[in-house]
Amino acid sequence: MPLLFYSMHHNSPTPVSITPSLNSTKKSQTIFHLLEWKKCLNMRDLQQIHAQMIITGFIHHIPSLTKLISHSISGDSTGLTYASMIFNHTQQPNIVIWNTILRGFVNHKLPKRALLGYVDMLQESRTIPDRFTFPSLLKGCAQSLDFHEGKILHGHIIKFNLVSDLYIETTLITMYAACGDLNSARAVFEKMGQRNQVVWTSMIGGYARNHYPTEALLLFTEMEEEGEDPDEVTMVSLLSACAELKDLEYGKKLHLRIRESDMKVCVFLGTALVDMYTKCGELDSARKVFDELPDRNVVAWSAMISGYVQNNRSKEALRLFKEMVTESDQNPNEITILAVLSACAQVGDLDLGRWVHAYIGRAGLKNYISLQNSLIDMYSKCGRIDTACQIFYDMPERDVVSWNAMITGLALHGLGKEALNQFTLMQTAGIQPDDITFIGVLSACSHGGLVQEGCRHFQNMKVQYGIPPKLEHYGCMVDLLSRAGLLEEAKEYIREMPMKPNGAIWGALLSACRVYNNVELGEEAANHLLNLEPENDGVYVLLSNIYARKQKWEEVRMVRSLMHKRGIRKTPGCSSIVVDGVSHEFLVGGHSHPESEKVHLMLDHVTQKLKLAGYVAETSEVLLNIDEEEKEGSVSQHSEKLAICFGLLKTRAGTEIVIMKNLRVCTDCHSAIKLISKVFQREITVRDRSRFHHFKDGFCSCRDYW
DNA sequence: ATAGGGTTAG
Predict the structure, then answer these.
(1) Residue A129 carries which DSSP code?
(2) pLDDT by residue (tens digit) across A12-53?
(3) How far is the CA of A684 from the C1' of B9 (A)?
């Protein structure tokens, strides 16, 4: 009596009949066809087929058994477990079955198990590997960057006389390139008798991923000279090389070629295009590609979101992230979250930052340390240095980046002593500081006015740690000495530094010259800056303020006419505040905000109250920032004041955090906000370019310049 | 019956 079982395709009720006769070719083909019938089988179906195979005896039909295992490993981890169970019950598996199970381990990101299996295969099973064995194993080595094992496998390949197999050669190139040994990869490539599209692509990809983008593009030229055409995969590597080089022209050419060819813009290729465009700063083109993608996975979303972040367009990044969470079926992964946290830090969106913090726990994201590091950075840049400390304290393991984030965060909050204390603890913990650490340390000294400590750390960095100071370190020193009023000493550092000082360095000196009324050095710094950055409106303003303080009106007029002649306008100050998860932006004297009427009424109210409390607007400097007609009104309408008024309007209590872009809090606003905090009983935190200013009860936490 | 090259961060 024949056995009946229903096929797994539920709307196809045709029963398949199988008689338990072993060596019948016809019947064995039935099972075999069944296994070939669908590309993807679920566990239930597989188990049914497996059961039938045992009952009918087809379990001994090797091709069918291989197919069964092959189907099983193409599923999830349950499938792999099932496959290895079947495998373990197979007596004397042949090489084909071995190859299949080894591939299963590699494809499930278990390269170590694959290698152990291979050793078993050689030693226990005494089975000789063939040309199908090594591609999977080498792919595993490439995955886990197992250079040592990879080289051993290369030895085996030679021993088993398989060196001139095209597939093996390709995976050898991939393995060596993944492990960073481009010379060996190239050596394999050069020795090859024939090279197809895939071979070229794997060598090009090797250069691209090892940060040799020029070599990648050069090799592509050779590939074309040899008459091989690129395909989608080649294009992905080429685009990533263009992204690294920020070579928009080349990138556009590739995009054009893709459009003119019959290549399909799949997620992979689309993401590579998005990445290329964002790295080249062409966000609109990137977004266009992104919007036209038929389906978007996490990687595509992450590429677009971090593209916005890298181009300082965090508001758009967060808008897109919210769309991803609400309107797509894709779950943010570690990389998405890293970008989003950095966006939260940029715009000061503490609410969303907290949501993301909770999400990390809820989603059970891996890559724990970098996420915690990012959280530290986010909290400290959103004004919550206390929470940042707590996270740091709770971390079971910390790396250099964790310590750097903590030191930089403390420095940003003007907590110089605490930052230096943290640096000491870091050394006690045996963590080797790097160049970034010293940027944190030196900027902590600079914000805390700790001149001697700063100089000592600068020396130690060179002598004790052997870290050669970069431009940024000299910048910190110039800033440190300048802020402390040691202008000549700052100048000495500029003279001594082995590289050409950049705008930031002359800018630090110039700002200090304004504070300490040093016309001579100020002129010198400004002249350097006007050469380096003729478009920088701040320079003209600072210089004219320096002259104005000394009542050199002729010079003031000269600077202003120069500015006018060059067609440079002062970029308006911009501040933002997040209320109920929405970031609101204000420009100086601006009326662009939908509720600006109310905000200006509030500002009038605030000004009245401040006057009663004895506030007199300080206008001697700022009035020169702006065109004559705007003078009177604009002083009291600085963007940070508008943002603060919005906060007073919209929130009942708590801490307001105002983020300023491209500016420092000016003297006038500083004294005004001190009073607001007292009169309105609010804690206000203002974050400007370089630091936080916490205002409470008429006092400010920061100590410099005021 | 079994095999190869690819995208997001730092």
Answers:
(1) P
(2) 333 344 444 444 455 556 666 766 666 667 888 889 889 998
(3) 33
Q: Output the pLDDT for position A635.
A: 53
> Domain residue spans in chain A?
492-569, 577-700
Q: Which nucleotide is nearest to A243 (CA to C1')?
A: B7
Largest CA distance in chain A: 113
pLDDT at A16: 42
Q: In the sheet where A699-700 sits, what is the strand order?
A: A582-587, A574-579, A655-661, A683-687, A692-696, A699-700
A144 touches strand B (CB under 7 A): no
> Which residue has its C-alpha nearest to nucleotide B10's C1'?
A370
Closest nucleotide C1' to the C-alpha of A99: B2
pLDDT of residue A37: 63
Which residue in the block uniquely carries the two structure tokens 């350097």? A528
Q: Region of A570 please: left (phi>0), alpha (psi -120 to 50) or beta.
A: beta
Question: What is residue A658's predicted lDDT score, i.e. its pLDDT?
Answer: 77
Looking at residue A25, its pLDDT comes to 54
Closest CA to B3 C1' — which residue?
A132
pLDDT digits (tens, 9 = 90+) for A431-486: 999 999 999 999 999 888 899 999 999 999 999 999 999 999 999 999 999 989 99
* Closest nt by CA–C1' to A66: B1
Measured from Cα to the C1' atom, the residue closest to B6 is A233
Strand B contacts in A 267-326 (CB under 7 A): 267-269, 271-272, 275, 297-300, 302-303, 306, 310
pLDDT for the residue numbered A448: 82
Residues of chain A with pLDDT under 70: 1-32, 34-40, 618-636, 653-655, 662-663, 703-706
Residue A166 contacts strand B, CB under 7 A:
yes
The C1' atom of B7 and the CA atom of A392 lie apart, in whole Å, by 32
R_g of chain A, CA atoms, integer Å: 33
Closest nucleotide C1' to the C-alpha of A302? B8
- Structure tokens belonging to residue A111: 């390269």
CA distances from A623 to A530, A541, A637, A660 (A): 22, 10, 12, 19
Contact A367, A596 (CB under 8 A): no
Chain B nucleotides with an atom closer than 7 Å to a protein C-beta: 1-10
* Whether A373 CB is under 7 Å from strand B: no
Helices (H), A429-581: 435-448, 451-463, 471-483, 487-496, 503-515, 519-532, 537-549, 553-565
